[in-house]
Design a protein that fits this description.
single chain; 317 residues; mainly alpha; ABC transporter involved in vitamin B12 uptake, BtuC; 3% strand; globular
């Protein structure tokens, strides 16, 4: 039991920080631009594929720098020549536009790299066991993922809340006319914010692409979970996204190893269970591990019912 708890905690931490790396860019874009970017997971996928191509020729470490920059350029292009044009038509138009971008990027990835996974592997310099705890190996690459994730949170939090750049960005959202009168180009501020959010998703793809599997389905697999994280943490709250990422990851990771059903729990508590048949019997036999995929969305529904602003959100848009 102790080994299961320890192993689940380590995996929860890794998965949670990967979710935060992916959701931080979406949180940044919504918090500072009030735009819900449905195509955000596509930038994560592009980061993984860009890193695969770059690392094939010049190695992983240059890919760690150039792949997020490339994704950021794609994000800037999409905002400047697409999203900015539909912004005046409201949130529905923005959502539909980013929804279309999601599928365009998905099809482009399939056309270029095919439908099969690509061999994007962990760099050799980090592919070794850093330490072993109770027969559980903790690789150096996992430690590297932890370091990058925590560093990203610290840098983002400082930039948004403590730096002059963060003050300009936040002021551009609430008082664009005043910021423009002070000599700042507000549309350019929003463009670079969107590009920065895309670059953060690209960085998550560089780090997570070889830890997971780099394939066209990776955006569809992680995209919905990212929106759950943002909603649960609170729309626009970076700290909320960090906490929600860890909670969602722990919820899913611990559920995987729990091979118990509702009938087992009732029997453990000495609760009398009358004879059941049909759908009632089937429901009682469902194990917790089988509900892993459903639990984050159930958590989000309950959060929206009882605390619509999320854990640390301040807005309800």
């Amino acid at each position: 039991m102790l080994e299961f708890i320890l192993f689940s905690c380590i995996n929860s931490l890794l998965y949670g920080l990967l979710l935060f790396m992916l959701s931080s860019g979406l949180t940044l874009i919504f918090g500072l631009m009030n735009v819900l970017n449905f195509a955000h997971a596509s930038f994560f996928m592009l980061g993984a594929y860009f890193a695969y191509e770059i690392s094939t020729y010049i190695g992983f470490w240059p890919a760690l720098v150039f792949a997020p920059l490339g994704v950021g350029v794609v994000g800037i292009f999409i905002e400047r020549y697409g999203l900015r044009s539909v912004h005046k038509y409201g949130h529905v138009a923005e959502l539909l536009f980013t929804f279309g971008v999601f599928y365009v990027i998905d099809e482009l990835v399939i056309l270029i790299w095919g439908r099969n996974p690509v061999p994007y592997e962990v760099p050799g310099g980090l592919d070794f066991t850093l330490l072993t705890i109770m027969n559980t190996n903790f690789s150096a690459y996992r430690a590297f993922m932890l370091l990058i994730s925590v560093a990203m949170f610290a840098v983002l939090f400082f930039v948004i809340t403590r730096s002059r750049l963060g003050l300009i960005i936040q002021a551009a959202l609430t008082h664009p006319e005043t910021v423009g009168a002070l000599g700042h180009n507000v549309p350019s501020v929003f463009m670079y914010v969107f590009g920065g959010g895309a670059a953060l998703a690209g960085l998550a793809g560089v780090i997570g692409g070889n830890y997971l599997i780099t394939e066209p389905a990776m955006a569809q697999n992680l995209g919905p979970i990212v929106f759950v994280v943002v909603v649960v943490g609170g729309m626009g709250s970076l700290t909320g996204a960090f906490v929600a990422s860890l909670l969602i990851a722990a919820l899913q990771t611990f559920a995987v190893g729990m091979e118990v059903s509702l009938s087992d729990l009732l029997a453990l508590w000495d609760v009398y269970i009358p004879e059941a048949s049909g759908i009632i019997e089937d429901l009682l036999r469902i194990q917790v591990s089988h509900t892993r995929g459903m639990l984050p969305y159930l958590f989000m529904v309950l959060m929206l019912v009882f605390k619509p602003k999320g854990l640390m959100g301040t807005r309800e848009e």
